[in-house]
Amino acid sequence: MIGVVDYGMGNRRSVVKALERVGGEPRLTADHDELRAARGLVVPGVGAFPEAMRRLHAAGLDTLVRERAQAGVPVIGLCLGMQLLFERSGEHEGARGLGLLPGAVVRLCADGLKLPHIGWNEVAFVRPSRLTEGLGDSAAFYHVHSYVPADETAALGYGTYGVRFVSLVERDNVFGAQCHPEKSSHEGLTLLGNFVSLAAA
Q1: Which residues contact 18 (CB under 8 A, 6 or more apart)?
Q2: Which of 29, 111, 183, 193 could form a disulfide with 142 if both were Cys (CB 3.0 to 4.6 A apart)?
């Protein structure tokens, strides 16, 4: 079972349907016991970082996600969910994140291009990963975002929109995709299928 952390933000149903398509058994829930029983956790998200952290904290889900990640359970953040994995963000009034990955999330310096960055973007992988198996050296994913990680320590893949930006991250059992894999056709489903497989391993 894959727990999809339900804190009331993001296209959660689309994520659930995509996980079902790749053979996962997703459960959209905020119940702590159900999430603790999951073999992997997905943190979805669409919207603003500070509001997302307020909702996670109000439900005690920030502590739970940290706890499960520290226990070695695979965790993946999608879109805003990836940004939440970092220590902090400067979006709006700023906020502290989950702190599972180092550094801040900052506004994308897109070299004069319009923000948010919306559309398909080729992501080049910079090292082998279980998350990108079967995707070759790069793949196109659908993005909608204005913020990116400033710290590149955990970078797994880069896109380019005016400048190069971190699109995929991995450190130990913590993964993140700035894109929307659930909206990214075959490549996105392959990525989600890989996450389901490594959670089951």
Answers
A1: 181, 182, 188, 189, 192
A2: 183
CA–CA dist 141, 144 (Å, integer) = 10
- In the prediction, which pLDDT does 11 show? 82
Q: What is the CATH number of domain 2-200?
A: 3.40.50.880
Q: What share of the chain is helix, strand, coil (3-state, %, to 5)?
A: 30, 30, 35
Cβ neighbours around 118 below 10 Å, total = 13
3-state secondary structure string across 152-175: CCCEEEEEEECEEEEEEEEECCEE
At 107-130, the pLDDT tens digits run 999 988 999 999 999 999 999 999
Q: Give the end-to-end CA distance of the chain in Å, rounded to a whole number.
A: 12
Q: Counting beta carbons within 10 angstroms of the beta carbon of residue 124, is it exposed (0 to 12), middle (13 to 18) or buried (19 or more)?
A: middle
Please tell me the distance from the alpha carbon of residue 175 to that of residue 185, in angstroms, as a whole number.
20
Catalytically annotated residues: 79, 180, 182
